Amino acid sequence: xxEIDLPESHPRYQSLLTRHRIxxxxxxxxTSRQGLIAEGRGEAFDYLLGERTIPxxxxxxxxxxxxxxxxxxxxxxxxxxxxxxxxxETVDLAAAVDADIEVNLFNRTDERMRAIxxxxxxxxxxxAGVAVxxxxxxxxxxxxxxxxxxxxxxxxxxxxxxxxxxxxxAAMGKSEVVIDLNPLSRSAQAATVPIVDNVLRAVPNxxxxxxxxxxxxxxxxxxxxxxxxxxxxxEAAEDAIRSGELD
Length: 247
Ligand code: PTJ
Known about the structure:
Mean pLDDT: 90
Distance between the termini: 25 Å
Low-confidence stretches: 144-150
Number of helices: 11
Number of strands: 6
Radius of gyration: 17 Å
Structural class: alpha/beta
Strand order of the largest sheet: 3-2-1-4-5-6
Bound molecules: ligand PTJ
C-alpha cells in the first residue's frame, strides 16, 4: 500500500496517485487551480501513450542526461505541478547532474513561491546541498509580460511549461530540455531535447541515465547528443498517440 491506499499493481494506480498529489498540492497552496486543468490535459495524452515511457522518450531522457552533464550551469525549473508531483525526484536529479533548482511560476504569487521553496527544502534539497532559487529573482526573461524569475543558466529543464516561456528561452539561446506529454505543444516543439513522457516517469529516468553516464567522457556525451533527433522523437510520440496501440 502507498500514499493513496492502493496497491501499485492497480491498473489506475499511477493516474490516481497523480490526481491525489495535484489535489494535495492545491490544498497546500503549492499548485495553482490551473494546475488541475493542466493535469487533466496531460492525463489524456498519457492515456493515449499507454501510460508508459515509449522508446523515443527513453532515448530523449538519455540525451537530456548527456546535455545536463555537459552543461556549465544547468538549472531545473519547477512550477506548482512539478513541486506537487515530483519534489524528491527533482532534488535527486539536481544532485545527479549538479544543477540548481529555480522556482518559476506562470501564476506567480509570493505565497506560492515561498510554499514551493519550503516544500523542496523539506523534501531533501537542503540535505542534498541543492540550491533552491527563485525568491530573489532579478533578471527577467525578455518578451514575457507575466512575471518570471531569472534564468542565467546555459541548460534549462522546463517540465510542464507553457509555450511562451519555452519559446522565449529558446530565443535567448538556451538549450532546453522540455518534459511534456503533448508532442504538439509549443514547448515541446521549441526544445533542444523534448521528452514526451509523464514527469512522474521522466524525471527519475533522466536521473538514472545521468548516473549511468557519470563516467562517460565529454566526447561520448557529445556523441549521444549528436545522435539524438528532436524532430524524429516528436514524430515518434505523435505516431504512438495517434495509432493508440493500447494493450
Ligand atoms: O504553477 P504555475 O503557476 O507555474 O502553473 C503551471 C501550469 C502547468 C498550470 C502552467 O504552466 C500551464 O498553464 O501550463 P499549460 O499551458 O497548461 O501546459 C501544461 C502542459 O503540460 C500541457 O501540454 C500538458 O499536456 C502537459 N502536462 C500536464 N501534466 C503533465 C504534463 N506533461 C508531463 N507530465 C505531466 N504529469
